[in-house]
Specification:
The complex is a heterodimer of chains A (304) and B (370).
Chain A lengths: L5 H8 L2 H28 L3 E2 L2 E2 L3 E4 L2 E4 L4 H8 L1 H34 L2 H12 L6 H12 L4 H9 L12 H26 L2 H9 L4 H12 L1 H16 L3 H6 L7 H11 L3 H34 L1
Antiparallel strand pairs in A: 1-2, 3-4
Helix pairs in contact in A: 2-14, 4-8, 4-11, 8-11, 9-10, 11-14, 13-14
Chain B lengths: L4 H4 L3 E12 L3 E12 L3 E6 L5 H9 L6 E6 L2 E2 L10 E4 L11 H11 L4 H14 L15 H13 L5 E5 L7 H18 L2 E6 L2 H7 L2 E6 L2 E6 L1 H6 L4 H6 L4 E10 L4 E4 L4 E4 L10 E6 L5 E3 L9 E11 L3 E8 L4 E7 L14 E5 L5 E4 L2
Parallel strand pairs in B: 3-8, 3-9, 6-7, 7-8
Antiparallel strand pairs in B: 1-2, 1-4, 4-5, 9-10, 11-12, 11-14, 12-13, 14-20, 15-19, 16-17, 16-19, 17-18
The structure holds adenosine-5'-triphosphate (ATP) and magnesium ion.
Chain lengths: 304, 370
Amino acid sequence: MRKQSIMPRLRRLFTVRNLVIGIPMIWLFALAAAPLLLVLNISLAHMEVTSVSSLWHWADNELTLKFNFGNYLYLGEDSLYFDTYVSSLKFAALTTLYCLIVGYPFAYFISRAPEHLRTMLLMLVMLPFWTSFLLRIYAWKALLADNGVVNNGLMGLGVIASPIHMMHTSFSLTIGMVYAYLPFMVLPLYATLVKLDGRMLEAAADLGASPFKTFWLVTVPLTKRGIIAGSLLVFIPAFGEYVIPELLGGPRTLMIARVLWDEFFSNNDWPMASAVTIVMILLILVPMALFNRYNDETRLGEKS
Amino acid sequence: MASVTATTDREVLLKIDGVSKIFDGVVKAVDNVSLSVKKGEIFALVGSSGCGKSTLLRMLAGFETPTSGRIYLSGQDITDLTPYERPVNMMFQSYALFPHLNVWDNVAFGLRRDGLKGAELAERVDAMLSLVQLSKYGKRKPHQLSGGQQQRVALARSLAKRPTLLLLDEPLGALDKKLRETTQLELVNIIEQVGVTCVLVTHDQEEAMTMASHIAVMDEGYFLQVGTPDEIYETPNSRFVAGFVGNVNIFEGKVDEDEPDHITVICPECTHYVGHGITGTSGMRVAVALRPEKIQLSSVQPNKNHNWCAGEVVEIAYLGPHTTYHLKLKTGMVLKVQQPNLTRKMADDLTWGDHVFAHWTRDAMVVLTE
Ligand SMILES: Nc1ncnc2c1ncn2[C@@H]1O[C@H](COP(=O)(O)OP(=O)(O)OP(=O)(O)O)[C@@H](O)[C@H]1O
Ligand SMILES: [Mg+2]
């Protein structure tokens, strides 16, 4: 009896439906979950010269599990890590805020532009993606350097007498970050703004709301999803950004990705680097989870 | 149904003076329209799609600026005021309720802009919600309401600020026919209870007749006729108005006798003896409009020289309270006749192919010169 029922069961397992769902699941597991587990594994191990210690040990019919929480504890002990996390969060948050401040009017303007112009304006937003990212960041170096375009221009005009030091400061870092991530803010904002029902704004005006009040009480709440999506799209990669701080940031600009790099490649301490990574991921998961909850709550409301 | 005489001696609240709106320099949406609306009356704008009803209404709300002409409210020129400065509120075509606010906050939105707070605000909002019988629904979001309930929230929101003038753009457009009919009367009741002056836009002439005390029939940005519902229905001033408001049979003909108290019009179908005079001359081409319900049918030939014709029944539409017959006349014209069903359906009733005589009285029709 038992034996017979295995074949149909197997057949049921390999339906088209399961395959369609299964392939992306396997993909996600192989390329996201498995590496993450590996990192988690390494973070709980010791460094043994060139390799990483094993977490489990089988001897004399005994399975011994050895988790090393030392790396995590060290993260708390050395204030460098804490400071770096805070500094990274601060830069990511500032980048997000500036992107929002610059991106919102941007997206608003595009969504209100005549329909035939909108596609072109969106293309212009995405245009930078067509050239190499590194090239664009290097271009900022040329712009902001002491004898760069901006300083030369200002001195030529007589606005300043000696060059302003901009390169390798948090100023140049922030400019580079905002510049690089702005499109990620503009696109989701545009998507919600363009769907905004013009009659909502008319209704608000009709009920006595000034344009400013209408913006705060109607436009912003109704585009909240775009604001949140755009902010996450900027915040998450900005938090772990390596290239921009490396090229534009100051020598003492603390960014977590640089610490990671040092742990991996200078100190060769993989478990430590992995622990840094795991904590970093946890820090990112919190806003993600909040966003998901908000999404679920508002999905019903968006239907009408 | 608002009575007509009650509003005739009231003061004028809204005055539209020669207002035009031209879009993009070419589209004449509203063309030199003038109008007075008295305090407390419900005024309906009717007309076919694209005739400029919404555009006129939006100029009253302040969403569009007239290309020329002025708009006065209580004697004050409001043409250049922004929407949020006008004591005018609008109920939008598909309600435009704020989806992120619950019913209570939707209604409170306008009052809060006036700086109302606390107990006073709550009192006004609660009074509005009970007026539209939605007191229990304050916490709901708009998408959790039925179409009829949303419509009542929209009404409550637009009435909450006690506007001088209430604008309604197709207020019942999203409701099904049955709900529309009950809601029309409900809406009129609420509006009369509050006593607010209304301008109502609809493309449904029956709705206009039920709700309004005065109606303007629009076509291509013009006002063709302005009057009470019975004036518009019984004495339309043009073929368009006669055809737009209700069903009508139009006979084309020539004036023969032209006396102050009557005229006769000779048409290919029959001769009309009309019991009113016209400003015209003998020999002039005119149209005689005759409503289907003002015609009688009989099986014997009427004993008179005019106001009857013979035809064959080609179509019967039984509608319950009455039946509509289509008679084919000898000229090929199809005459619509509506008969009340005074008795239950009988076996010897008219049927397809029957030859009958249609006749009517001298006061049944109206002569149209336009
Ligand atoms: N913003 C605009 N720009 C250009 N033309 C417009 C604009 N708004 C309306 N029109 C034109 O003006 C005319 C009148 O439009 P309106 O919306 O007032 O019609 P309506 O009588 O309300 O029709 P409906 O019953 O279909 O709502 C139409 O020809 C329309 O195409
Ligand atoms: Mg309209």
